[in-house]
Amino acid sequence: MTMSEYSEIEAKLRTRLDDLLTRAEVIEDDLRHPLDDDWEEQAVDLADDEALEGVDDVLRAEIQQIRLALLRIKNGTYGTCAKCGNEIRKERLEARPIATRCINCASEAA
Among 21, 30, 36, 22, which Cα is nearest to 51's? Predict the structure, then answer.
């Protein structure tokens, strides 16, 4: 497939990236809040912050994967298996646009 055939996937990746960046910004803003003077409230806030940091880590990992997929589209390597070099089927890329391996290589790694 040519890179122009991935334009729909690229558009979806860009939309998802924008959404994730917005969500990550909201989480980071929430994490910057000062702690309450009340000790019990501080304990609750710290527990909440720990959960938010976990969510932020997951968002950041997906953001990085999407950026790498967009880079592969740009440099012409998108849709090529990073392990065997074969083409990754379009159906797989539509289902998992950040995929770097064909279904055969991905199933071997599992």
Answer: 30
Q: Pull the structure tokens for residue 97.
A: 């646009």
Do residues 70 and 38 touch, judged by C-beta distance below 8 A?
no
DSSP 38-89: SHHHHHHHHHHHHHHHHHHHHHHHHHHHHHHHHHHHHHT-TTB-TTT-PBPP
pLDDT in tens, 16-48: 999 999 999 988 887 777 766 666 666 666 667
- Nearest-angstrom CA–CA distance, 11 and 23: 19
Gap between the Cα atoms of 3 and 19, Å rounded? 24
Give 78: exposed, middle or buried? Use CB within 10 Å, 0-12, 13-18, 19+.
Answer: buried
pTM: 0.78
